[in-house]
Design brief:
The chain is an alpha/beta fold. 38% of the residues lie in helices and 16% in strands. The chain starts with 7 loop residues before the first helix and ends with a helix.
């Protein structure tokens, strides 16, 4: 079983249908699809496939630096944010780390690969699946080598309190703890600037960004790591394997951040569809639903011994079960927010499997 969403083929084989018949709510990809500007650019520049990409990806790093008002030397692009999680852990070689649970699986896998001892900071329903001042106390007491935080969290879609997050940044700076903040979904929050403006003030701060989800290019894969520690970024670039980013992914990074109509359309879609889907899910008595701020919704099925994923598969709908997230159970699920038509189809299927309507 895949540890991530998007394993549509596996599930289609399981129920004996074609993958194209399944509506995939398990992967958090923008339903607007790849920007038209990128499709046109790829068609116009198909000949890029006939040449090696620039091994330094100079144009890509320059475009990312322009978008974020920083230096190209602050940035290392990669084959999705996942490659960069492993790159930064390999660079830091932490002996001890703190992970917030539930959280994205690849932080743990990357840390385990270097033999790091992991301390779990457990978030639960009782505390709204949010960190609080207890985390600051743990950091001051344990003094770990590094801390991973996702803003917003995956799978809950929740953002930590802004003042607490700033206190965490200060605490990690004080104790020289490497703070890796995963901002993979922050582009879906137009009012959340993220921490890129603070990079020069905090040299132990590393930010992960992804273009895969927002710009609907999971097959191309593109992410980037930012840090104020120019020596660290330079060293990671020197140690990486060459050409991990294909020519069309590099092209995507050079143009899509300038596609303001697409960015605006995405924010308008989410502003409409997130509250609609949340309200209709929350109206089902069999569900406990959390009001996140990303492009997915976290929920718990209250019906005992009920496999909601399997029940919805009979309606050719795939949602993400969260049983393999530490601290969660087989009753926890994550659903992507999709188009109005698909969201309506999900709600109709939910009503049918729970016997409402």
């Amino acid at each position: 079983m895949s540890e991530h969403g998007g394993n549509v083929l596996e599930m289609a084989l399981k129920i004996g249908t074609d993958a194209t018949n399944i509506v995939d709510f398990s992967a958090n990809i923008n339903p607007l699809g790849m920007p038209a500007s990128l499709k046109a650019a790829i068609i116009e520049q198909l000949a890029r496939a006939e040449h090696y990409p620039d091994v330094e990806y100079r144009q890509l790093h320059a475009a990312l630096a322009r978008a974020h008002h920083c230096l190209p030397e602050n940035i290392m692009a990669g084959n999705g944010a996942t490659e960069l999680i492993y790159a930064v852990v390999q660079h830091l070689q932490p002996r001890t780390a703190v992970l917030l649970t539930p959280g994205f699986a690849e932080y743990r896998r990357a840390l385990q690969r270097v033999g790091c001892q992991i301390h779990n900071y457990q978030m639960s329903e009782a505390d709204g699946y949010q960190p609080d001042e207890r985390l600051l106390a743990l950091l001051a007491q344990q003094r770990p080598d590094c801390l991973f935080i996702a803003t917003p969290n995956n799978p809950t879609g929740l953002m930590p309190d802004a003042k607490l997050l700033q206190a965490i940044v200060q605490c990690c700076h004080q104790y020289r703890i490497a703070l890796i903040i995963d901002e993979a979904f922050i582009d879906f929050l137009p009012d959340a600037p993220g921490l890129i403006p603070q990079l020069t003030d905090f040299p132990h701060l590393y930010l992960l960004r992804s273009l895969t989800k927002f710009f609907a290019i999971p097959g191309l894969r593109l992410g980037y790591l930012l840090s104020g520690d120019l020596a660290a970024i330079s060293q990671m670039k020197q140690l990486r394997e060459p050409w991990t980013i294909n020519a069309f992914a590099a092209l995507a990074g050079e143009i899509i951040l300038d596609d303001q109509p697409y960015i605006q359309a995405t924010h308008e879609w989410l502003t409409q569809q997130r509250p609609w889907l949340y309200q209709h899910l929350a109206a089902l008595p069999a569900l406990q639903v959390w009001q996140g701020c990303a492009n997915y919704i976290f929920l718990r099925c209250l019906k005992p011994e009920f496999d909601l994923q399997q029940a919805l598969l009979q309606h050719h709908i795939l949602i993400r079960h969260c049983a393999n997230y530490p601290g969660l159970s087989r009753d926890h699920y994550r659903v992507a927010i999709k188009s109005a038509i698909d969201n309506q189809r999900l709600i109709t299927a939910m009503q049918q499997v729970f016997g409402h309507g």
